[in-house]
Amino acid sequence: MEWAAPSSWTVVVLAAGKGKRMGSSLPKVLHPVLGVPLLAHVLATARHLDPQKLFVVVGHGADQVKASFHSEELSWVDQTEQLGTGDAVARVAPYLETWNGPLMVLYGDVPLLRPWTLAALMETHIVQKNGATILTAEMPDPSGYGRILRDADGGFLAIREDADLKPVERAIAEINSGIGVFECPKLFRALRALRTENAQGEYYLTDVIEWFRGEGDRVGTLRLADPVEISGINTPQELEAAGKNMALRSKNDPGACPHCQRSYEALLLKETPHAILSLHPNPYNSGHLIVTPRRHVTWFASLSADERREIGELVILGEKLLQRVYQPQGLNSGFNSGGSEHLGMELLPRWNGDTNFMLLTGKTNLVPEGLQQSKSKILRALKEEEA
């Protein structure tokens, strides 16, 4: 199975909120971060995944929001009465009656999400064949967020909204971001079954999770490493903090994907149309190599036929180069996959029976040379190999 952004998936951005705590008559999603409206940041991130269709659900100040994005190709849906997130997504159903495929729900006031986070979420959903997949994170202060309830083995059980938590559940740090991917048309059947039996008297999108589980569908989660990404904006102070966080982002952003940002350009050995061979930036041994696909992929099952072929070819080439340069007793090799990290095949020379990355045995050939020295040696060997 190959993962790609097919013509069979869409995005719904919820942007109907009034933003009472912002202290402004301006619709919340039009408040600027670094001079750009909140909603514009979210739309730009969503478009990185090239969805077939992009819906925006608007309510408070709908005309003003639409006018601010009049030149963009968007499908606008009105939610005249704010009855909850479940009701907001249900407003899109009439436009997708005959459509099958995954639907991603985003929020117009969450501007710090990275494109590869959304790519990893969609990929996890498809590879695991989930009915629904939820983006989660552990927060130092989870108050105000719905919590992720798990069983004794760590398996997903349910989402409980903050207002409905039992006292013993308030200490749970893992929260529901509200961002998720859902299979349609099942999602719309689940939304029709929603009830308002909760503290807010609203239709919660999160309540569809119980419906999916009841239907026997798998519900998956993807836990974010950087919870700042899902920071929502509700106050001027949070708006200011989002601006500071965004301004700090750069090519060397520690939360960014270094492979996608080409942060390892200086360690590059060879690249093909779909794959890259380079020195590992944090080597365990001299000659520690890594082969990665060019695009952000996190699961092996998502690789295309061309990506698999070219990764395989570069792995074989890497083995030859390491044998030529270092004459190791053997190689440790394996894929790092899953989660949200960029998939990579690592090749690690070993000596003296060092088979399990046991770095402190005293018998490892541990990084006796610098990366540039390794690169120089391997590039010479590559030139000879290709001669």
UniProtKB/TrEMBL annotation:
Any Pfam family the entry gives: NTP_transf_3
Domain HIT spans what residues? 255-357
Matches recorded under InterPro entries: GlmU-like, HIT-like, HIT-like_sf, MobA-like_NTP_Trfase, Nucleotide-diphossugar_trans
Which PROSITE patterns does its entry note? HIT_2 (PS51084)
Gene3D superfamilies in the record, alphabetically? Answer: HIT-like (3.30.428.10), Spore Coat Polysaccharide Biosynthesis Protein SpsA, Chain A (3.90.550.10)
GO MF terms here are: glucosamine-1-phosphate N-acetyltransferase activity; UDP-N-acetylglucosamine diphosphorylase activity
Q: Which reaction does it catalyse?
A: N-acetyl-alpha-D-glucosamine 1-phosphate + UTP + H(+) = UDP-N-acetyl-alpha-D-glucosamine + diphosphate; alpha-D-glucosamine 1-phosphate + acetyl-CoA = N-acetyl-alpha-D-glucosamine 1-phosphate + CoA + H(+)
| Highest taxon of source | Bacteria
**Segment forming the signal sequence:** none
Query: Which of UniProt's keywords are assigned here?
Result: Acyltransferase, Nucleotidyltransferase, Transferase
Q: Which family does it belong to?
A: In the C-terminal section; belongs to the transferase hexapeptide repeat family. In the N-terminal section; belongs to the N-acetylglucosamine-1-phosphate uridyltransferase family.
Q: Function of this protein?
A: Catalyzes the last two sequential reactions in the de novo biosynthetic pathway for UDP-N-acetylglucosamine (UDP-GlcNAc). The C-terminal domain catalyzes the transfer of acetyl group from acetyl coenzyme A to glucosamine-1-phosphate (GlcN-1-P) to produce N-acetylglucosamine-1-phosphate (GlcNAc-1-P), which is converted into UDP-GlcNAc by the transfer of uridine 5-monophosphate (from uridine 5-triphosphate), a reaction catalyzed by the N-terminal domain.
The record's section on PANTHER family has: BIFUNCTIONAL PROTEIN GLMU (PTHR43584:SF3), NUCLEOTIDYL TRANSFERASE (PTHR43584)
Name of the protein in its database record? NTP transferase domain-containing protein
Q: Which organism is it from?
A: Eiseniibacteriota bacterium
